Each structure stands twice: as structure tokens, then as C-alpha cells.
Amino acid sequence: MPKQKIPDIHQLITCVQDNLTDISTLENYLNQNPLKINRTTKEKLTPIAMACSLGNTNIVTLLLKYNPNLKLKGNSHCTPLHIAVIKYKTAENNTQKQNYWKIIKQLIEKDPTTLKCKEGFGKTARNFALKQNPQTPELAKIFDKYHTPKSHGTTVRFFKLGIKCVTSAVDYILPTP
Question: Of 47, 78, 82, 81, which is closest to residue 62 (Cα–Cα)?
């Protein structure tokens, strides 16, 4: 009897997106193969980045339960948050915009430190939201909500990167509701 080929996680995501299989199939796969959550394609696209690109909120919600690394970048040098912001800005209708909005919010809530991640040209997802046309002030609100410096006792840490290069990083906290 020939050995049955096990589908790849990226193939399963495509099948769920195309309604060829139920999302529970993807969930069962992840339960049996939790380490595949950060598996990349030859383009270095992670499952969460793929789901963000597709704009499928159900798949993103499921994948986030398995704690994917939201800072991994593909060949485009973008994190899943960068991808979701770009897709939000280029969405063709309000339904797509709402889906990407929900994804952006989920990603930031899952790991607010992704707000500091920069793509290949040194831009954060917030830079994409504010500096490129069309400007999206509604995105600025969500980024500002989660990217608030501590109001008291701000801690600045210095990291030495070579002999003469020093950069600073400010600690950020989530605002209390």
C-alpha cells in the first residue's frame, strides 16, 4: 500500500481559505504538529503571514492560539503585522478592511513588541500606516493605543552594537483599560 502524503500546513491553510476543507482539519493538524506553526515556505512565508495576507480572520485566530513567532520575516522582509497593514490600506471593500482591521488588532494584542519590528527599509508597520499614501489615521489610533511610553519612570536601556554604535530602546507597556 503506498504511503499517504501528509499535507503541508500551508496547503491546509489554502484548502480552508478555498472552502475545500473545514478549519477543524487545520486545528487537528496543529494539535498533532504544533512545531509546524513557524514552518516557512521557500519564500520564507510563515502560516500566520500567509493567513494575514489572505485576510482570513478565522485562520488567524486559530493560528494565534499556537503562539506563532510574529517577528519572523519572509523574503519581503515584512512581519505579519506589516502584511496586514499593507493589505488593509489596499483593501477593495469595507468587508476586507474590517477583516484586516481585526487581524491587525489581534496581532498587536498577541505581541505588542511587534510594533517595534522594522521591515527591510527600516519602517515599522506604523510607518506604513501613517507615511504612505493613502494615509490612514484610523490605524494610527490603534498603534498609539498600544505603543504608549510609560508615563512615569521610563526605562531606557542601551545596547552596544560594535565599537562606536550605540542605540537606545524604550520600554513600552499596554495602557490599562
Answer: 47
